[in-house]
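Technical appendix A lists one of the benchmark inputs used to test multi-chain prediction within the project. The record comprises two sequence entries:
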Amino acid sequence: MQPESSAPEPITIAFDVMGGDHGPEEVVRGAAQLSLETPHLHALLVGDRALIDAALEGTRHSGERIAVHHASQWVEMSEKPSLALAQKPDASISVAARLVAEGEAQALVSAGNTGAGVLACAKHFKLIRGIRRAALAAVYPTQALHGQKQDPFSLILDVGATVDATAEDLVAFSVMGAAYSKIISKNPDPAVALLSNGTEPRKGPPRVVEAHERLSRTPGLRFIGNVEGVDIPKGTADVIACDGFVGNVCLKMLEGIHETVLELARYAYKEKLLWRAGLAMLSSGIERIKQVTDWEQYGGAPILGFDRIFIKAHGRSRARAIANAGKVAAKAVAKDLARSIEQGLPS
Amino acid sequence: MQPESSAPEPITIAFDVMGGDHGPEEVVRGAAQLSLETPHLHALLVGDRALIDAALEGTRHSGERIAVHHASQWVEMSEKPSLALAQKPDASISVAARLVAEGEAQALVSAGNTGAGVLACAKHFKLIRGIRRAALAAVYPTQALHGQKQDPFSLILDVGATVDATAEDLVAFSVMGAAYSKIISKNPDPAVALLSNGTEPRKGPPRVVEAHERLSRTPGLRFIGNVEGVDIPKGTADVIACDGFVGNVCLKMLEGIHETVLELARYAYKEKLLWRAGLAMLSSGIERIKQVTDWEQYGGAPILGFDRIFIKAHGRSRARAIANAGKVAAKAVAKDLARSIEQGLPS
């Protein structure tokens, strides 16, 4: 066994440079930061070579740890994913996913169109043995603190990849979420729960009741039973499993509450500018509420279920968030997340 | 046609006195208030006669507008509804529902066990023709203002009565919500939406896609299409229809956010007691956030779909909220809500 201090294996992350609200520059800057900060990480930038070269020119980076792969097309945020991928065979997200599948890189990071990312992975990656459907997970802040790092974050999945999840899918999502929480959040024994309309084991639609039963019998998983909507912001569980329909509604509701809070904060700033002491306080109070309702501050959302890693950074990501998504992806590769998921599935 | 100023028809409301967190006293006080304030309303108090008489003795009320019907049993908040009703044939909620069905009163108000209330109605009331399943609706505060009264409230249904709703149920819920909004919220043309994981008509599980299609063809209904989770706190629609599973999770999530805000407010009070100016501001800012997240301030949640009216007041209701629930129930009776629902259903 090697000592902990030995140099880690080099890992290459493919970045879909053309996605994201802030254009290629911000993704390139994120990858450039990564190349300077973490010697064992390499970045493979996929997208329009001229744009990438122009962005690299103005940014400090380590030339030997950054490579570029040209792709002539890209998917816009507003495009319908299936149509866009069919019409644009050389779209950066497709090319990047293919390069990862072929082993040119070990993981994929994109801040682009989520649906296109999921479809590109579905096309080029393989599902882990025992997994029937992939899940999009979201890391969001809660009132409670979690794991060794005392993280204020919980994981909820699926939030939109699999709208109609079966009991078997819900079990798989639970196992995938637990594996991710162990590896990325350093939470050695995460508390996993099913989202339902009551805490009793028989509450909920048949798929949830059946998943509850199966999870109670799944070894190596700390299943704490059903949680309710009230437990989402509280952070009662470290991992919450649900179908993509209800998960998506919940996640967007958190976003809606956050927007409401932001508007109230703006209103308060405007109306009461003279009250400096009060302003400071109001701002600190609202700051905490904002944190609890801002699910975006944590950078990347993993797509779980494939043999390769895909971290979806938020569209609004700046360079810092892109670099963080790259680090999370590298960690998932180094700790072999896919294997850990496969081993956690009930046999 | 009679002029508006003529005396309204007398209406009797049956109150299940034994439910609620604050005991019979609070429900009796609410009914007593009603008897003094609104001459055309009569209250039929159902529960333990000795307890009711004791509560009435200490409360100002109009004796000629209050009657008592003894019931020797009652359902606790924590009891399993179906079991409790089976074991307690003389439970106050069952007796009250039966009295309404028999015409002794025109509507039912209870602050007790919600499930027991729904089951008692299902047993004694009839479903409106064309309605397959009942729905529990919740009125909750939003950022936007609604209707003629410029109400800051929207209606979401179902929030727990029908966990597995079909497309047909979702259409019925939409019609029922619109009728309620017209009659109770004085919103002559309420905007009705389906909750989904995207605004496009084909987004969501098959039941939602099919309901979307049917609602687009339903005359007399202002269907604005799908809304997402972000639209719940915003108040984009006046009425949001969804199945009882996702509706329950959303409603409880609002409750969870509200609790988080309350805790932050308590924390701020404790930590910064000296900053008086700031405190006042913080409290006004937090007050607005509390309003937007407090779905309970509006008293009663109607159970829709039956030929008789049932208003479920929150367990924590005080006398004022009970009296308000009685007024809402009376309004629904006077305007013949059930007929309005039946007429709104697609033929």
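The mean pLDDT of chain B is 87. Residues 14 and 44 of chain B are 5 Å apart (CA to CA). Comparable benchmark entries are summarised in Table A2.
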